[in-house]
Design a protein that fits this description.
- The structure is a homodimer of 130-residue chains.
- With 130 residues, the first copy, chain A, is mainly alpha-helical.
- In chain A, helix 2 crosses helix 5.
- The radius of gyration of chain A is 19 Å and the shape is elongated.
- The first copy, chain A, binds a DNA duplex (20 and 20 nucleotides) through helix 4.
- Chains A, B: It comes from Pendulispora albinea.
Chain lengths: 130, 130
DNA sequence: CTGGATCCCACCAGATACTG
DNA sequence: CAGTATCTGGTGGGATCCAG
């Protein structure tokens, strides 16, 4: 199941724990965890409305992945019409905390990155024109 | 240039700074930053040897992205044969520090994730068989 | 030695249609 | 309401060949 070719690649870092890092690199996972962190409990359609732009499929898939990894708890109430609740697990909250500090750091530095890019692009459009 | 549809998506988190998060989600970027963090300065072929499994193309591309974002400095010595040095910038070192703490956290919790997955898979192979 | 340029495939996100 | 099933276009990334 999946791509588990991470065992021999980690020569540089002690352990990369791709399982977890992939979630953090995934746009929808980050969004969902953030939003679930703000609301304690949400239903499928509520999530769909809050995460602007996500497709129904990606919501399902991402939610399932997060559940599988133990970050999100999915509770089904067997009624008609169906009623399903999603909330963060304790592990999910821990992830959120860590994500937050990272996201904060990232946004504090995104200006530097933006400037670096402009400089780079400028440099390279010069050599292109020259 | 590129995909900049991140402006309206950040309703949940104050700011997602995808520019930076994408690097952390990218396997090769993480590896390169880690390795460059250990060696101060490395040449193209040295990097290629150290990052087991990377293709020549991905090394070039990833290096270029890291340079463009201001995390890596590329210094060319105009000699024959070409001699190119790569090293982390101060911003790159900052990224490394932050990445490290995240990677450490991730690896401390990857067992929990692994167990969650096994539990999930067990649950779902049951319903499948039942 | 350090890449640039191409070809090409495998995989994934997005849209659509259908179901309990 | 909360999904599943299916099709498809775009793209990330490996392999390969070429060049300064």
């Amino acid at each position: 199941m999946g791509k588990s070719a991470n065992s021999d690649i980690q020569k540089g870092c002690p352990c990369l724990a791709r399982d977890v890092l992939d979630r953090i690199g995934d746009r929808w996972s980050v969004l969902l965890v953030c939003i679930l962190g703000e609301h304690e409990v949400l239903r499928f359609t509520e999530l769909r409305r809050k995460v602007t732009g996500i497709s129904q499929r990606m919501l399902t898939v991402t939610l399932r992945d997060l559940e599988r990894d133990g970050f999100v708890q999915r509770k089904v109430k067997p009624v008609i019409p169906p009623h399903v609740e999603y909330r963060l697990t304790p592990l999910g909250h821990a992830l959120l905390e860590n994500m937050r500090s990272l996201v904060n750091w990232a946004s504090r530095h995104q200006d530097a990155v933006r400037r670096a890019r402009e400089a780079y692009d400028a440099r390279h459009s010069v050599e292109e024109a020259g």
